[in-house]
Amino acid sequence: MIKIAFVCTGNTCRSVMAERILKKLSDQDKSIKVSSRGIYATGENISPMAKKVLKSHHISAANRKSVKLGKIDKNTLYVVMNNQMKICIPGGKVISFEDLMAEPIADPYGKDEQAYQLTFDQLSMGIKILLEKIKKWREI
Questions:
Q1: Crossing angle of the two packed helices 48-56 and 113-139, in degrees rounded to 10
Q2: Which residue among 29, 99, 107, 112 is the active-site one?
Q3: Cα–Cα nearest to 40, from 6, 66, 2
Q4: What span, in angstroms and rounded, lies between the C-alpha atoms of 108 and 130?
Q5: What are the Cα distances from residue 72, in Å, to 91, 93, 123?
Q6: 54-79 per-position pLDDT tens digit
Q7: Is 29 a catalytic residue?
Q8: What burial class does residue 25 get, using C-beta atoms within 10 Å of its C-beta: 0-12 exposed, 13-18 middle, 19+ buried?
Q9: Is 121 part of the annotated catalytic residue set?
Q10: DSSP character at residue 87
């Protein structure tokens, strides 16, 4: 089993969207366990605009409280939004969307639906690349 945790700043937009996207893409693959965390999470609900965009793609937009990044699990692959976030996961297995796609995932918090849709599209592309890498890792 591979455990993947997406990490962003507050766990209300990017990381929770990434979690939901990957769950939908891998819903038949029980060997992938997905979660998300926020570096500065404070127990807030998923942002309304993130919910709206997820719903528009027929992905679960159910409320869930944000979860703060805690103890680093050496058996989890942490996927962060940009290279700067890597320092928040000392000693862990970490990769960024910049590593996957050569660009970070900008924070859409407080922006309009178009910004959230762009974030969704970038996350989807990066997650598909990640799944291809995982498939190749498993073949080794």
A1: 60
A2: 107
A3: 66
A4: 22
A5: 8, 9, 23
A6: 999 999 999 999 999 999 999 999 99
A7: no
A8: middle
A9: no
A10: G
Which residue among 8, 13, 20, 37 is the active-site one?
8
Catalytic residue among 13, 14, 20, 37: 14
Amino acid at 128: K
**112 included as an active-site residue:** no
9-57 confidence digits (pLDDT tens)? 999 999 999 999 999 998 878 889 999 999 999 999 999 999 999 999 9
**CA nearest to 7, candidates 62, 125, 87, 110:** 87
* Measured CA angle at 119 (ends 109, 96), to 5 deg: 100
In angstroms, what CA-CA distances link 140 with 49, 79, 132, 135? 40, 21, 13, 9
With CA atoms as reference, report the closest residue to 91 among 111, 110, 74: 74
Q: With contact defined as beta carbons under 8 Å apart, do 4 and 137 qualify?
A: no
Task: Please tell me whether the overall predicted TM-score, pTM, comes out greater than 0.90 for this model.
Answer: yes
Full set of structural domains in the chain with CATH: 2-139 (3.40.50.2300)
- HEC profile of 27-70: CCCCCEEEEEEECCCCCCECCHHHHHHHHHCCCCCCCCECCECC
